[in-house]
Each structure stands twice: as structure tokens, then as C-alpha cells.
Design brief:
The longest helix has 27 residues, at 144-170. This protein has a four-stranded mixed sheet with strand order 7-9-2-8. Strands 1-10 form a two-stranded antiparallel ribbon. It has helices at 10-21, 88-93, 107-117, 144-170; strands at residues 4-6, 26-29, 31-32, 38-40, 44-48, 54-58, 72-75, 84-86, 122-126, 130-132. The protein is of the alpha+beta class and 171 residues long. The protein contains four helices and ten strands.
């Protein structure tokens, strides 16, 4: 995303190296808010009564202080599209980011699940140094009720495609 800035390039180097050596097919990095709390540390899926028991994409530890001592790569179910690393061949093999989703929301998780379904590996670099001014540009796109409706529509589309796969993955 255009609202990412890199204070320490080491996490990005870890991600690139892991993709180049073939240990992961798609990797995201931890992203921090300006106050050094966690914005993104991976994506997990949980059913929500708010969405009629559909899976929603959660960002565990969001808003919590980022541990200073973590510096590794771990497997993940999904990572944010705000900053992903994958080879061009992998991007083409798994069909890239789907244009089925309106204005963001779920296209990153959709790509990650296609990678996993195809036998690939998704990972997250758990290291600090990259920041993201999350969704600040989206506030310029329509009102709150319209943004909520778009997110719900994307959630429905995502669940039609992936709820059975997520069920199997979590069991």
C-alpha cells in the first residue's frame, strides 16, 4: 500500500529471502501503527454473530504493544495485502488478487487461502520496523454506512467461496 513506510528493512529482507529460497510461497510482515502498537500480525478467521455466523477476518493482538524480541517467520492462515511478498510465478500460478471484492477487504485472505489450498505455504514475519497508516484513505470513499455495506457484501462473497475450506482447516 502507499501508506506503508519502512523504518527497518530487516523484516522485508527476511520475507524476500524466504520466498526466494522456497520455504514460503507468500509472506506478510508485522505492521505497526505510528505509536508502535500492532496493526497487523497475521489474519485468523472466526465466525461472528454480527455477520450471521459468517467468518470474519481478525487481526490478533491488534492495538497491543509489539514485542521487541521476536524476529522470525511462522506459518499463518492469511496475511494482509497491505504488504505481501511472493514471486511473480506464484502470483500468476494462484491467480493474483481477485477483483471480485469491492474496494479492499478479503482479497488478501482469498489469495492466501488459494495458496494454502494449492499446497503452498503462507507465513508472517514477526519482527518490528514496518508501519502502516491503516485505512486512512478509505475514509474518503463514501460514508460509513456505505463502507459497512461493502464490507458485508465482501464478507458474504468470501464465505461462499471459503467457509468449507476454513472449517476443514480449523478442525
Amino acid at each position: 500500500n502507499s501508506d506503508i513506510w519502512v523504518e527497518d528493512g530487516a523484516p522485508l529482507e527476511l520475507a524476500v529471502d524466504a520466498v526466494l529460497e522456497g520455504s514460503f510461497d507468500l509472506i506478510g510482515t508485522r505492521l505497526l501503527f505510528e505509536d508502535h502498537t500492532i496493526q497487523h500480525n497475521e489474519i485468523t478467521f472466526e465466525r461472528s454473530s454480527v455477520t450471521g455466523d459468517l467468518y470474519i477476518a481478525l487481526h490478533p493482538r491488534k492495538g497491543l504493544p509489539a514485542p521487541a524480541d521476536e524476529r522470525g517467520i511462522e506459518p499463518a492462515a492469511a496475511v494482509t495485502g497491505a504488504l505481501m511478498v511472493m514471486s511473480r510465478d506464484g502470483y500468476e500460478r494462484w491467480g493474483g488478487l481477485s477483483e471480485d471484492f469491492i474496494r479492499g477487504d478479503f482479497e488478501d485472505a482469498d489469495l492466501c487461502l488459494r495458496v494454502l489450498q494449492g499446497g503452498g505455504r503462507v507465513g508472517i514475519v514477526r519482527a518490528n520496523g514496518i508501519f502502516h497508516l491503516e485505512r486512512q484513505s478509505i475514509s474518503l470513499m463514501a460514508g460509513e454506512s456505505m463502507r459497512s455495506a461493502i464490507t458485508y457484501l465482501n464478507c458474504i462473497r468470501f464465505n461462499r467461496r471459503w467457509s468449507d475450506f476454513i472449517d476443514r482447516m480449523q478442525n
